[in-house]
Amino acid sequence: MNVLSDSKKRFVGFGFGPIQNGLFVYEAYRSGNFHPGGFTIAEVDPALVKAVRDNGGRYTINIAHADRIEPITVEGVTLLNPTAPSDREALARAIAEADVLCTALPSVDFFARGGDASVLELLAKGIQQRDTLIPAIIYTAENNNHAAEILGAELHKKISPRRTAAIQILNTVIGKMSGVITDGAEIARLKLTTLTPATPRAVLVEAFNRILITRITLPGVTSGIPTFVEKDDLLPFEEAKLYGHNAIHALLGYLAHRRGLQTMDQLAQHPDLLAIGREAFISECGQALCRKYATLGDPLFSRQGFRAYAEDLLVRMVNPNLNDLVARVIRDPRRKLGYHDRLYGTMHLALTREITPTNMARGAAAAVRFLSESEKLPITSEAELGRLLESVWGDQRDALAAKLVELTWSALNARD
Fold it and tell me: Beta-carbon neighbour count of residue 206 at 10 Å?
């Protein structure tokens, strides 16, 4: 069955983490635009596949609103394990009939992993079985600015462009906070519902659902998910997420860790830290992004628009119902201290727009302290700091690297 013979759409997903089950499948399900029972997901965790099957194709997520946590059950879901040959064949058939697909994997590196069970092999096999006139869209949700282009290039190595002429691969900007809670006591304290009765973990996602996607150009094709917003060029909004949302979330996380806080909502009791985050958000990364994209004409990149964006996110970041752990926010400091990542990437952008990122430097300094303490690397001089950051940045640094080190060293020596 396909879009030409059925007004309802069919969905195929890859990966069953909180972005897939708590965003894409959930929003598609509640839209009413998808076929009942028309959700097929590739998942390599056999226990999870069995649990959803045993639960009659149902799973439950928990939505964190400002004033409550709401459990929502999604039905009509089939989980298939691509490492099993019979499931692999069923996945290929589902891909051949799908109108909307979504990859939601840890990174774009996973596209080719798994041999015959990989996303690339499964897509190639399923697309080979499709009617070339039937359109479909594929969302990529790997938090990579070029995930769609990477998937498309790899796919075209396996099948001819003629086979994919009616398929459009889309990038996404996902500003939705989510997580998986596995601690039984924490699940009980928050009164969460587990994914299934047999699954000892709960998915907790915020209610925010305004997701940005590449504009769909296939004639007559819609996403079917009304909360998604199409943009002609996603790059400015991807930068707003990385150098705005992600940057300030990390900054506040590392400052919260220095203060000994356990969850991000505890920042509400520390207005001095929130003030640093607000100033960094609005006056540093916000100003830099608005200067860079002033000619775009989008309301986000206006002074008032970006301030509203910042204030909304600062409230969402400290939502107590989200149970956002500081330890989760600050993990993997080497990646987050990358030269073009959320902390130093934002500082670099600010400097190129003639803005001194003093407050961002305080977040970077807190992250550097966390890294040095975690790896037992002393920082007793600016030269030692430079060597540590050089080991993180590699050959990505440029003429502004020395200024970034200087700003960080100054922040390290400032009074907390």
Answer: 21
